[in-house]
Amino acid sequence: MVQQYQSPVRVYKHPFELVMAAYARRFPKCPLIPVFVDSEIVSQSESDDGSLTVTERRCTIDVDAPRLLKRIAGVDYLYFIQKNTLNRRDRTLHIMVHNETFSNRVVVRECCSYTVHPENENWTCFEQTANLDIKSFFGFESTAEKIATKLYASSIKKGKEIIEHYLRQMEEEGVTYIPRWTPPADSCCVTARPQLPPPSSARGIPVNSTKDGLHSKDLTSPTELVVGTPDDKLDADYIRRYLGDLTPLQESCLIRLRQWLQETHKGKIPKDQHVLRFLKARDFNLDKAREFLCQSLTWRKQHQVDFLLDTWERPQLLLDYYTGGWHHHDRDGRPLYVLRLGQMDTKGLVRALGEEALLRQVLSINEEGLRRCEENTRVFGRPISCWMCLVDLEGLNMRHLWRPGVKALLRIIEVVEANYPETLGRLLILRAPRVFPVLWTLVSPLINENTRKKFLVYAGNDYQGPGGLVDYIDREIIPDFLGGNCMCDIPEGGTVPKSLYRTAEELESEENSFLTDSIYKSANIFKGAPYEVLIEITEASSVITWDFDVCKGDVIFNIYHSKWAPQPPKRDALGAHGIASLGAVNAQLIDRNWVLGQDYSRVEKALICREGESVQGSHITRWPGFYILQWRFHNSAACAASSLPRVDDVLASLQVSSHKCKIMYYTEVLASHDFRGSMTSLESCQSGFSQLSAATTSSSQSCASSTVSR
Fold first, then answer.
1. Mean pLDDT over each residue of the chain, to the nearest integer
2. What's the CATH number for 313-499?
3. Which residue, 144, 153, 228, 285, is most buried by CB atoms nearer than 10 A?
4. What are the CA-CA distances from residue 210 to residues 25, 32, 46, 213, 683 (Å)?
């Protein structure tokens, strides 16, 4: 298996020339890197004007590996070839490294670059990528991979420290300024820009100083500002400030998953904090985290969760009887949510509101928690990605174990676990009664093991002693009902009047509505059985709009018009397609006996839509009548040959049929006076992740055709 590494952008707040002088001091050997035994220059060449120097070194590495493994391999040291290309004119250094030892068994490739910061020409950026592919290693492939990964992670961590060490050393020596390279005076091809004078307190490196082949003229560069790294790259200081201290390999996983989303994900990209939560939930296993995240993003889009806080109005019953609310923050700055579960009439809320309303309530709490974490990160100046929950169980009894109520609780836990991982920092359960173990036995199997470790349970008044509540929240904000002096703005709760209960039929009709009540609908397209949607237009110049994602396979999208209402065939007629064994097959609206151009006509050019694409478009109708939106199976060899997985590849991997496509679509008909441009400008097109997104990926084309984004 190929192991990959991608560093964040590390910034040195020093000019490129100073950083290069510090970098040169690493050679031929560096005491700060014990495994770096020695290096020798194999070859070196320089351009006529001195702006470009290419240096090739042979580096000796002493790997910290078991002696038995070294004896089996028959080597004491490993040798690597390093090729450095220093461009003083462009102020860049590109480093390419590959292994010489065991090159037929192990492939190691590393690329590094030093460039000028895009926004400050007196700063320097560093980036690094690497690949490790162990094909065979005397039967110790797994051991060799672990040793190599550990060694590389250690060297990455020291890399910036070493450069900063030599920068401090140079400063102690009085070297704080090195002039940039300028073309030779006799050069007629290049016009030099005015040279900036050195600061009065600084002195340059002596003209006759050399270091490992880099002469004094090697340490200068022109004044042109290099186009820097793209805005979408992560800076190491940003990661530390907003995401926390991550190991180099964890940083790499975050960057690679983020890059993968940018390259393949349709719509807006989730914020880095959100992506990191899914990586943590899967122990930074990139493949598992990618699958986990894709499932959640599809769920959010399908059910418009991003708009929940702005569009959902809590029923008055929840405002009066739901005994929970936000209350300041804990000692670590995490938002604190207090829930008096023992005082809540869960049976009454379920009977009066249904499972659906409670689920929306819990989702809105989680969405609000995400917002509060971002706000506290800004307020406290450190990464805060989760919140703390305090659950008071005083009053909990067998009424709370009412089966429909427990069923609702289990479903809520399942949805939260699947879509809000690593958002709970700590959960304190206070005044747990004897009935609590029964409830815990029911719910604990649905809770992730890492989440269960964050639970602390206190019986009776144990929370008032050492190791209790005061260890986690300041005494000044302990709620009054727990013996503190802080008023907690949470409803008192109480018993929900039975007069507000709804009938079983009403509750049954709304059960699971959150899973089906979506502006988007899902449809399967089979080979030989297209999926069709009938739209009746009574007024010419109406606008048919559509927005769909191709989740699996490739499809052909068509729009047809007919003066007559199509008659769906009977179910037994579907046997003519030869796929009756597949179960529920799409009913065909276009009769097989209809003739294109006579009975019906195509009003838009057929559009081939590839797997992973998001398509939005509109059509202004010319005549009243019946319009048919049709998605047909498209067999594309090009798609099958693609080696790069897309977001929905992960979701579709469980689908084994190669003759089946899947789409998620939304259609709407607008009057001509309500139409304000292309589909991408319509307010009704809600296909983004607005709350969890920091940047938008979009593409549009005008009006009567579709827009496609990957």
1. 79
2. 3.40.525.10
3. 144
4. 10, 21, 15, 7, 65
Distances (CA, A) of 696 to 256, 269, 317, 707: 18, 6, 38, 15
Every domain of the chain with CATH number 2.60.120.680 lies at 521-567+587-635+659-674
* CATH number, domain 521-567+587-635+659-674: 2.60.120.680
In b/e form, how buried is each residue of 143-166, taking b as 16+ CB within 10 angstroms? ebbebbeebbeeebeebeebbebb
Residue 598 burial class via C-beta count within 10 angstroms: exposed 0-12, middle 13-18, buried 19 and up:
exposed
Residue 457 three-state SS: strand
3 state SS of 709? strand
CB atoms within 10 A of CB 58: 15
pTM, 2 dp: 0.66
Cβ(372)–Cβ(345) under 8 Å?
no
How far, in Å, CA of 135 to CA of 107, rounded? 8
- Res 498 pLDDT > 90: no
Check if the beta carbon of residue 547 is closer than 8 Å to that of residue 615: yes
Closest C-alpha among 27, 2, 34, 28 to residue 109: 2
Identify which has the larger pLDDT, 465 or 227: 465
CA dist 520 and 105 (Å) reads 51
CA dist 418 and 366 (Å) reads 12
Contact 315, 353 (CB under 8 A): yes
Mean pLDDT of 620-639: 83
The contacts of residue 643 (CB under 8 Å, 6+ apart) are none
Residue 576: half-sphere exposure toward Cβ, Cα within 13 Å? 10
Which of 171-175, 221-225, 241-245, 416-420 has the lowest average pLDDT?
A: 221-225
- The class level of CATH for 237-303 reads mainly alpha
pLDDT higher than threshold 70 for residue 189:
no
The domain made up of 2-173 is a member of CATH 3.30.530.20? yes
Query: Distance (Å, rounded) from C-alpha 149 to C-alpha 249?
Result: 9
> Where does CATH 1.10.8.20 sit in the chain?
237-303
How many Å apart are CA 374 and CA 369, to the nearest integer? 9
The pLDDT > 70 percentage for the chain reads: 78
User: Where is average pLDDT lowest: 231-240, 473-482, 677-686?
Assistant: 677-686
Q: Report the relative pairing of strands 387-392 and 424-430 from DSSP bridges.
A: parallel
Angle, nearest 10°, between helix axes 286-302 and 272-281?
120
Give 287: exposed, middle or buried? Use CB within 10 Å, 0-12, 13-18, 19+.
exposed
350 exposure class (CB count in 10 Å sphere: 0-12, 13-18, 19+): buried
